[in-house]
Design a protein that fits this description.
mainly alpha; MetI-like fold; 8 helices; about 80% helix; flat
């Protein structure tokens, strides 16, 4: 039932190669998605009605559609419009959109959590809206948002497992390949799950630590 040490040592290079791709897609999706989320958050808070509606549309689609649907739409749907993407960029774009939509709400709530008196002080000092954002809102808001953003990063990492549906050779895809050649799907997928846990569990502990530190800072 459970894989032997010899089997695991045989599977490990392929599984680690898949894990590497999962981590790469996660990092790229977050590097694109979190700044995109900041732009969307500012767009939702904007006074311009067109910018606000467009931002809300992108947020609601990104949040309302499951990540699997976004992956399928970008990889299989866009070719019908003449735009064909390989599985790797399609995965990054889909997960970055999903990350941007969710993190925009986290960032927006964090920006709005900054005390109103500090905004009034910025106006009294004659700061422009850009300077108010740069020196007052972003430093404090992003500090509040950090634990939630780190927690969501774990979900994006776990969400890369959906990318096997668009033929991306990530961790789950490699586990399925091993299962199809050895007819031992359960131990292969179990090994993949253990590799996911080896990243997710320490990351979750880090998030808990950051949350406690943030809570202590907030009560000072």
């Amino acid at each position: 039932m459970f894989p032997s040490y010899a089997e695991i040592s045989t599977w490990l290079p392929d599984l680690l190669a898949g894990l590497s791709i999962s981590i790469q897609v996660t990092v790229l999706s977050l590097l694109i998605g979190i700044p995109f989320g900041l732009v969307l958050a500012l767009g939702v808070l904007a006074r311009n009605r067109v910018v606000k509606i467009l931002s809300l549309f992108l947020v609601e689609i990104g949040r309302g559609a499951p990540a699997l649907v976004l992956l399928q739409f970008i990889y299989f749907g866009l070719p019908t419009t003449g735009l064909t993407l390989a599985s790797y960029p399609a995965a990054v774009i889909a997960l970055a959109w999903n990350a941007g939509a969710y993190t925009s709400e986290i960032i927006r709530a964090s920006l709005q959590s900054v005390a109103h008196g500090q905004r009034e002080a910025a106006v009294a000092l004659g700061l422009s809206r850009l300077d108010e954002l740069r020196y007052i809102l972003l430093p404090q808001g992003l500090r509040v948002a950090l634990p939630a953003l780190l927690g969501f990063s774990i979900l994006i990492f776990q969400g890369t497992s959906l990318c096997f549906t668009i033929a991306l050779p990530e961790l789950v895809s490699r586990a399925y390949e091993i299962g199809s050649t050895t007819f031992r799907y359960f131990p292969a997928l179990l090994s993949a799950g253990m590799l996911y846990a080896s990243i997710s569990v320490p990351a979750a502990l880090l998030v808990n630590y950051v949350e406690k530190r943030a809570s202590l800072y907030a009560h000072r």
